[in-house]
Amino acid sequence: MENYKALQDLKEFESLNLSSDFSLHKKTTKMAQLPALGTPMQVTIKEKIVEDEATKQKNKQLEAELSEMKEKLANIKVQEEKPQVDAEPKANPLTAKIVESLQVKVAEMQCEMDKKLKESSAVTSMKQIIKDKNAKINELREKLAKYEGDD
Predict the structure, then answer these.
(1) Phi and psi torsions of 25, nearest 5°
(2) Alpha-carbon dihedral sign for residues 115, 121, 125, 126
(3) For 69-94, what is each residue's pLDDT tens digit?
């Protein structure tokens, strides 16, 4: 930690330039343009949070559309199941097509929602964390087995 502080001080000193009136001015270098340590991670986290919020909003919208279509589908099924007043029941090809198209749309929306969930940054980062932890657990188990084998 002390070495890190000394390196930061040295970097800051090197970025200063002595001018003709002996006042210190910072040089404009590529290193001076780089953000301080920790800043890119915070920006990335903020961007991920905004991205996750947008994904959540999109998912809510898709869920609303999905529930609306499910209601329409249920209403159509109820109407088809109602006993018809006529003595001879008629097959309505138009409602059958509507029901089929709604079922296809519902299936597509469910697939799209699953895909978006799997691709969201929160899920992928959690998968990476779990993968790393599992690797660590396996490593510790191997070490433990090595020591237990000696007993």
Answers:
(1) -130, 145
(2) negative
(3) 888 888 888 888 776 555 444 557 77
Total tally of structural domains belonging to the chain: 3
The answer to whether residues 79 and 44 belong to one domain is: yes
Report CA Rg, the chain.
31
Other C-beta atoms lying within 10 Å of the C-beta of residue 102: 16
- The amino acid at residue 52 is D
| pTM given for the model | 0.34
Q: Are 55 and 95 in contact (CB under 8 A)?
A: no
Pair 17, 28 in one domain: yes
State whether 86 and 114 are in the same domain.
Answer: yes
Do 38 and 46 form a contact (C-beta atoms < 8 A)? no
The whole-angstrom distance between residue 64's C-alpha and the CA centroid of its chain comes to: 20
pLDDT tens digits along 10-44 = 777 777 655 555 555 555 565 555 656 555 555 57
Closest CA to 51 of 146, 119, 147, 141: 119
